[in-house]
Structure formats: structure tokens, C-alpha cells
Write a structure and sequence with these properties.
72 residues, alpha+beta, Metal Transport, Frataxin, Chain A, three-stranded antiparallel sheet, 22% strand
Length: 72
């Protein structure tokens, strides 16, 4: 199994979050706050189809409690 991170846009990340039960809790400018019923929360910067930087994607994955495989 590879530990390489996929190239994801913000739209791709939002699709995964929605599929796993996250709901949009608010937005400030281009930053959306996504919250799960169990209290997990992540911020996603919506910048069109630009890829999310790897460090930001790592932070989103850790904060969401999801697996790397969920984002492939």
C-alpha cells in the first residue's frame, strides 16, 4: 500500500466529507467549516479546481478522522 497522497481539489474533498456524514456548518469567505455529528470538524478552503497542498490535505484527513484510502 502506497502512502502517497492523492491530488485533490476542494470539490473532491467536499464529496468525500459529505459521503461520510459531514455537514456544512458555516463559511467565512472561501473557507468552509464541515462538522460531523460526533464533533469532528475540518476547514476546507474553496479555491475552484486548484489542487489542495499536500500539508493541508494531511491536516484535513487527520482532522476528519477518515482514512487516506477514502480520498483516493
Amino acid at each position: 500500500m502506497s502512502h502517497r497522497y492523492p491530488v485533490c481539489s476542494a470539490k473532491d474533498v467536499v464529496k468525500v466529507l459529505r459521503r461520510h456524514g459531514f455537514l456544512l456548518a458555516g463559511q467565512s469567505g472561501s473557507h468552509q467549516k464541515w462538522r460531523h455529528a460526533n464533533g469532528r470538524q475540518v476547514i476546507v478552503a474553496m479555491h475552484g479546481s486548484k489542487p489542495i497542498p499536500i500539508g493541508t490535505l494531511k491536516s484535513i484527513i487527520e482532522g476528519s478522522g477518515l482514512l487516506l484510502e477514502d480520498f483516493r
